[in-house]
Amino acid sequence: MELKRVNQEFFVSDQISQQDIAEIAAKGIRTIICNRPDGEGADQPNIIEIQEAAIQHGIQLEYLPVVSGRVTDEQAFEFKELYQKSQKPLLAFCRSGTRSITLWALSQVAEQSLDQMLLQAKALGYDLQGLVPRILKQNPNQLNNIPTFSVVIVGGGAAGISVASSLLSRQPNLDIAIIDPAEIHYYQPGWTMVGGGIFPPEKTVRTMASLIPKQVNWIKAAVAAFDPDNKQVLLEGCKPINYEALVICPGLKLNWHGIEGLVETLGKNGVTSNYRYDLAPYTWQLVSSMKQGKAIFTQPPMPIKCAGAPQKAMYLSADHWQKQGVLQNINIDFYNTGGVLFGVQAYVPALMEYIKRYNANLHFNHQLIKVDGVQKRAWFKVTEGENSSVIETDFDMLHVVPPQQAPDFIRASNLVDAAGWVSVDQHTLQHTKYPYIFALGDVMNAPNAKTAAAARKQAPIVAVNVLQYLKGSNQFAQYDGYGSCPLTVERGKIVLAEFGYGGKLLPSFPKWFLDGQKPTRMAWLLKEQILPPMYWDGMLKGHEWLVKPKL
């Protein structure tokens, strides 16, 4: 028997026996629902035997047998009634638990979001994606006048708007929809500069309505699930949207809850992060007021959005303290879950010069796992080979980068790899199973850096490939893994890292003009003055500067 907890009041399990009842009772379970018909297996105890053992432990037993693979709507309704009236916690079981959790899902679809329900089940080892069409049929009012588009784009961030604009630049009459509930669009690469006191936060924000092309249908809703076999996206409330081609680019999810105690102290007690719009100004507040003490900067497990951002915050902070003449009074520590300072070795020597310049202490294989902001204490898991331990340290300022993952509705789908990222061909960015689905940006599993610069290169390639697919052609443009990370090593100078798959250097400019392996003023001017308008007025408008997709 393996008990799996779905929520605070409901468990599922595989086949139980009389001998398991004592353990079940010890868990506090008050009701058991048996969904496996008697006599299904030669080694299966019958319902009476289990009931007798349950009665001895004061547990109520209900019998709702379901034939494997044949869960009916009537049985789901009966399960719902049992679930509602029974004493909790409640355990439902069958041979593997699949029938039980299927009954639960069908009975709870009106009470909780579809994506969370699918994700809960998937986390327990049950794939309920096949229920999506059936759940939709339970809401027949949604089946009338289903909107259909040539291209549906999930996500209105940098990647989504750029793809839409690139598509329209090639085929102005294309019928496109962008699905995104957000009203505000952020220029996230600018938050490092906000945290360094260089940009005002207002410079990094615009309304979504001002950026989405007028020809595009903007559906202000959240996606609940995918039904790729029927070429449908399901919105919250089980409203379907049909498509000929689907582009998935909703970004990623910052898992602030992945570090114990972090949520309770963010934005106060000296704990900050440039990974949130409202917290980046607090970073600058802490930096500009700090005269002495201990400053800690952390980096979580990969992959993350802009792998250089955790150390960018450190460099800009240290540069300010040095120019204010207080650096000698501040102890700087960089705790990195990974084993190297930067993933592309060619840029490490230039970065190490600044590590020495700022007298920063590097701690590799150290993962932040817990924070106590009031006591100003932080705990790190230290990994050495197969061994691990936990250390504790104090701080006066703590810049945190949270662990990151694909959004819940993505991880709950059957479009992802084992790690939860959308599975694509790394060169064409076409889905590995469904040829009419493409993905780009932070959500897909190609082994490239998750940066806005990568999305800038990917968007035209995906646009070309989507149009090629719609024409029936299998000649696709190729993505080389390009990503860029402008490492702000001091105010006024940047090490401009540009690279592709395998760490191959892919500089955009000749070395005599801009040497990316050295800190340069030219790279700083690019970051400060050229990249923001290039983002707002170039990339998001379909102007494909420095990108030339080739079939």
Brief overview:
This protein is α/β, with parallel strands linked by helices.
Top CATH class of the largest domain = Alpha Beta
**Domains, number:** 3
Average pLDDT level: 93
By CATH, the architecture of the largest domain is named 3-Layer(bba) Sandwich
Q: How would you name the CATH homologous superfamily of the largest domain? A: FAD/NAD(P)-binding domain
How many β strands by DSSP? 26
- Output the number of helix runs: 15
CATH topology of the largest domain: FAD/NAD(P)-binding domain
Which structural class do the helices and strands define? alpha/beta
Rounded to the nearest angstrom, the radius of gyration is 27 Å
Instruction: State the low-pLDDT regions, or none.
Output: none
The percent range for strand residues is 15-25%
Topology:
Layout: E1 4-7, E2 10-13, H1 21-26, E3 31-34, H2 47-56, E4 60-63, H3 73-85, E5 90-93, H4 98-108, H5 114-123, H6 132-137, E6 148-154, H7 158-170, E7 176-179, E8 184-186, H8 191-195, E9 205-207, E10 217-219, E11 223-227, E12 232-235, E13 239-248, E14 253-254, H9 262-265, E15 271-272, H10 280-289, E16 293-299, H11 309-323, E17 330-336, H12 348-357, E18 361-364, E19 366-372, E20 377-384, E21 387-394, E22 397-399, E23 404-405, H13 408-411, E24 437-439, H14 452-470, E25 483-490, E26 493-499, H15 521-538
Parallel strand pairs: 2-5, 3-4, 3-5, 6-7, 6-13, 7-10, 13-24, 15-22, 16-17, 16-22, 17-18
Antiparallel strand pairs: 1-2, 8-9, 11-12, 12-13, 14-23, 19-20, 20-21, 25-26
